[in-house]
Amino acid sequence: MAIITLLTDFGQRDPYVAQMKGVVMRICRDAIIVDITHEIIPQNIEQGAFILYTTVPYFPPGTVHVAVVDPGVGTERKGLIIDCGDYVLVGPDNGLLLPAARRGKKFDVYEITNRRYFMEGVTHTFHGRDIFAPVAAHIARGVEIREIGRKIDEYVDMSLGFGKVRDGKIEGKIVHIDRFGNLITNIEGRTLLDRAKYGKVIDVEIGGLQLKMPFYKSYGYAGENELLLTIGGNGFVEIGVNMGSAFEKLKKGMGERVTLAL
User: Fold this and answer.
1) CATH 2.60.120.10 corresponds to the domain 164-261
2) Domain-by-domain residue ranges, the chain?
3) Tell me, what's the pLDDT at 217?
4) Cα separation of 26 and 134, whole Å?
């Protein structure tokens, strides 16, 4: 049975997600459709790439992942299929798919070219429904990728950075804020664990604000409403508040620079 995931910045108020699912089900009736999220900040390609990167490993081989955060829709930007061996990524050529692609041992990139696998009457503003959803459904049904597109070597790349170590400091930035208000960075947990033990108090600079925070295994080790550093479930350093919201407490958001002085 085919599994197709969807990640977009469409939200849930409008019919866009339902229309994509309808297209998939018309082509691949037995597909299991899983919503990763539709709450990516509009046009925030980096956040979408981060969420896709952290989610792909938890799906079984053969899953087709469709990601649409596409401010360039309707322009000359290409549509891509990336064959990662155990999974396939479908979406726009704007870097969104590349971090997730690198989770595979190797990957091949194809430009979507065969209009036979599009919806009739492709619009200029909704390629998620008109191109990416039907292409993913056809792949899930067994259509060979090379029938839908041509292999290419030039495409828009993206790196999530994963934090940089410089002069005794780890530098990164906030790439996601979860519903609990945790400020999730692109600093890999192992980068901090290699240099600090749990319980250490660390000098933290976030968006120009200087703070001291304890580094704990989890939120419950901190006092109520206490700020802390921890390593979240997806393996990245995050700033949290026990029984509270770091976002609300610090008023710092996406893209803010974070420096940990060790």
Assistant:
1) no
2) 3-152, 164-261
3) 97
4) 9
pLDDT at 144: 98
CATH of domain 3-152: 3.40.50.10790
CA distances from 158 to 88, 95, 104, 226 (A): 18, 5, 15, 35
pLDDT computed for residue 1 by the predictor: 79
* Residues 99, 24, 122, 35, Cα dihedral to 10°: -40
| Average pLDDT, 10 consecutive residues per value, the chain (262 residues) | 96 98 97 98 98 98 98 97 98 98 94 97 97 98 98 97 94 98 98 97 96 97 97 98 98 96 92
Residue 104 has what pLDDT? 85
CA angle 61, 66, 68 (to 5 degrees): 155
Dihedral (Cα; 66, 150, 158, 165), 10-degree rounding: 110
d(CA 64, CA 148): 14
Q: Which two tokens stand for residue 166?
A: 């410089």
**Residue 42: per-residue pLDDT:** 98
Residue 16: closest CA among 54, 66, 63: 66
pTM: predicted TM-score of the whole model, two decimal places: 0.96
pLDDT at 233: 97
Place of tokens 């190797």: 106
Question: What tokens does 231 get?
Answer: 């390593």
Rg (C-alpha) for the chain, rounded Å, is: 20
**In degrees rounded to 5, what are phi and psi of residue 16?**
-60, -45
